[in-house]
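Researcher: Next entry in the queue.
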Amino acid sequence: DPGSLSDDAIREVIQDRDGMLWIGTQDRGLDRLNPETGQIVHYPHDPSDPRSLSNNHIEVIYQDHDGVLWIGTHNGGLNRYASATATDSGAGPFTHYRHDPNDPTSLGHDDVRTIYEDHTGTLWVGTWGGGLNRFDRETGSFIRYLHDPDDPQSVSDNNIRPIYEDRTGNLWVGTSGGGLNKFDRETGTFARYQYDANDPHSLSHNHTRALYEDRAGALWVGTFGGGLNKY
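Model: Structure for this entry, 231 residues:
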């Protein structure tokens, strides 16, 4: 049935400002579902079409304040899609942002795990292996923030998971092996919050998977293997 979901392995679901559901699959690209009509449109990677989705393995979907959709893939980098141009044909154009080993201003890695827009409109892209990336919308280039074992104020790990801005403007960056970081955007430095076996009040695990600030201003940190933390 070409009108059904393209895959049963779902990695991400978001609802855009028009009420459409965008569904990222593990192997068959991007679907758009109209929840009122049940109509599904497929946006697959097409090797013969350079304007199609760059890769069929979706990791994250994010809509920014302008209504633009950003799609992070497992091995195809970052895609930009102006959802206002969405058609029922599933056609592009998708703009691709890929890692180029010869260009230090390119995306740090093609495995994109998280996308986040802060209150200033800056887009942050977390990669698996390529650290934290700040996107310059005017030039299409990236500034990379990478782990440096000789610099304790660098990001604690290059495998980035959640990114979250709290109500006071702090940008929190979770990693897959280095715990949690609080990023000072003025100095470009990171303060680390990590598991310490000798400190029962430290972070319970260095694999951080989820961040959320509640109405009282407490930051909740979900870990992979260490339960839930309240900061």
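Model: The chain has a mean pLDDT of 95.
Researcher: Noted, moving on.
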